[in-house]
């Protein structure tokens, strides 16, 4: 508790309290009336209580500390109730923040580039040498107008940059270099740009595959039929991560590696992807590490995986040429649209949490940025497909069942017919069609699928090691 004392000779007021070191501290206020002294005593008690408990100041106390003059602030700092009020320029604070993030070992180089962009925006708008503590909420709102009227940025871009600025200034509050966050209530409006969303039918992807060379066939198939992010996940996929026997692949996620418990996901080898992976396996040189291998793959990796993160170096130009050769018009987001189209397809047969896990995002992100309404959805609703009561049978290749289980579940129905019906339902058949190197199509029996899974199927040799001959049908 603090107390107010009055000097009987000259009437000067003094606030006294016992510090954490058990010593008495005095704050000399001079000649002020008792009401003012009592008000200051209450503030001193609040500051002292927050200091002892190790708690941050509430909004009212922070605003009061920001409003007091430098003389009173110096007296409070002298007794350890508030940090010394040193002038901190906006530029110096931003430079220190960026330097700390650049050296923390977790912030990605691409994020550091965004921080530098935000620093440039702030120092352009606010006066040179602006004091960080003097930026008001009104001025922060004016900065939003700067983005809208001067820079003329898209609403979603403004939303993202203001969110980043709020986080930066909140760090300043945490470090007690500023009393409050002037950007706390300054928000941009997130607007979903539907002009950049486009569903890419599988048939269009096949047309592009027909005019592509083997390496590009694999890149396109992994993007449209595997749902991998391109270039980061496509170019880092290794043969040691691909198991064509069990129908799974482990995908490394450079984008999510900083998040705890993330960094990779297990993805099924979907039926339409399988023939292109098999073709890539057949064409791979002995000892090849990457699925996108050879000199072409090495060149793409060197150009795309830069010091500032992954980028579509040399990929967009080539892909645009292939789309043109296929007689199609390019879609807005070349690789993202294909990945989103696969997620939309998968949602027709699987729960959203399963699809999100396979694609490496969350249901919230999937709904906001990936899933789309297609013409097929309208056609299905019109013909009553959603109410037909059709049952999707589980793919026996991905989850092989014993003959006893099949008999118990299907009665006297022939097991071979059940297997074929399930394969047809999920478009997963041992008979596969692939685009040949001459641009034509070829139909073949997959070397990695058996008509009836044997009892030792789960323990069969894995194709994750180069040099092990795949299982032949028999």
How would you characterize the overall build of this protein?
The chain has 474 residues and is mainly alpha-helical. Strands 1-2-3 form a 3-stranded antiparallel β-sheet, covered by helices on one side. A 3-stranded antiparallel β-sheet has the order 4-5-6. Strands 7-8 form a two-stranded antiparallel sheet. The protein is elongated and about 100 Å long. The protein contains 19 helices and 10 strands. It has helices at 34-53, 59-67, 70-78, 90-102, 109-125, 137-151, 155-174, 202-210, 214-224, 232-236, 274-283, 294-304, 315-325, 334-346, 352-359, 363-370, 375-382, 403-410, 415-425; strands at 3-6, 13-18, 24-30, 242-243, 248-252, 264-268, 305-306, 309-310, 431-435, 441-445. The chain starts with a strand and ends in a 29-residue tail after the last strand. The chain has 3 domains: 3-78, no CATH class; 90-191, Orthogonal Bundle (DNA polymerase, domain 1), CATH 1.10.150.130; 198-383, Orthogonal Bundle (hpI Integrase, Chain A), CATH 1.10.443. Residues 386-431 and 449-474 have low confidence and may be disordered.
């Amino acid at each position: 508790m603090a107390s107010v004392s009055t000097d009987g000779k000259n009437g000067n007021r003094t606030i006294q309290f016992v510090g954490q070191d058990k010593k008495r501290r005095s704050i000399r206020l001079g000649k002020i009336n008792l009401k003012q002294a009592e008000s200051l005593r209450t503030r001193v008690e609040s500051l002292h209580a927050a200091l002892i408990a190790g708690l941050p100041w509430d909004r009212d106390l922070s605003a009061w500390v920001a409003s007091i003059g430098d003389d009173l602030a110096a007296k409070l700092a002298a007794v350890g109730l508030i940090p010394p009020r040193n002038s901190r320029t906006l530029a110096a604070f931003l430079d220190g923040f960026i330097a700390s993030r650049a050296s923390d070992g977790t912030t990605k180089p691409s994020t550091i580039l965004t921080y530098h962009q935000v620093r440039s925006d702030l120092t352009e708008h606010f006066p040179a040498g602006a004091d960080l503590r003097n930026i008001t909420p009104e001025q922060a709102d004016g900065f939003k107008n700067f983005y809208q009227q001067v820079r003329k940025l898209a609403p979603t871009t403004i939303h993202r940059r203001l969110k980043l600025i709020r986080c930066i200034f909140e760090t300043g509050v945490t470090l007690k270099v500023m009393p409050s966050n002037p950007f706390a209530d300054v928000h941009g409006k997130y607007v979903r740009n539907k002009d950049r969303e486009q569903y890419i039918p599988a048939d269009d992807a096949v047309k592009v595959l027909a005019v592509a060379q083997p390496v590009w066939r694999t890149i396109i198939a992994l993007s449209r039929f595997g749902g991998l992010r391109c270039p980061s996940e496509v170019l880092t996929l290794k043969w040691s991560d691909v198991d064509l026997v069990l129908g799974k692949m482990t995908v490394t996620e450079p984008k999510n590696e900083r998040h705890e418990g993330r960094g990779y996901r297990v993805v099924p080898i979907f039926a339409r992807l399988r023939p292109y992976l098999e073709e890539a396996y057949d064409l791979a040189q002995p000892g090849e590490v990457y699925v996108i291998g050879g000199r072409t793959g090495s060149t793409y990796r060197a150009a795309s995986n830069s010091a500032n993160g992954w980028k579509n170096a040399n990929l967009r130009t080539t892909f645009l040429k292939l789309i043109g050769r296929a007689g199609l018009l390019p879609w807005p987001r070349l690789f993202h649209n294909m990945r989103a189209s696969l997620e939309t397809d998968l949602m027709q047969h699987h729960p959203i949490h399963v699809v999100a896990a396979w694609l490496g995002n969350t249901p919230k992100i999937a709904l906001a940025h990936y899933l789309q309404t297609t013409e097929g959805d309208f056609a299905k609703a019109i013909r009553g497909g959603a109410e037909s009561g059709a049952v999707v049978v589980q793919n026996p290749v991905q989850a092989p069942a014993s003959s006893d289980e099949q008999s118990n579940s299907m009665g006297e129905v022939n097991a071979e017919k059940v297997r074929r019906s399930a394969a047809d339902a999920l478009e997963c058949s041992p008979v596969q069609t692939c685009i040949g190197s001459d641009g034509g199509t070829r139909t073949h029996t997959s070397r990695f699928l058996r008509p009836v899974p044997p009892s030792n199927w789960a323990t069969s040799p894995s194709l994750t090691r180069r040099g092990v001959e795949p299982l032949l049908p028999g």
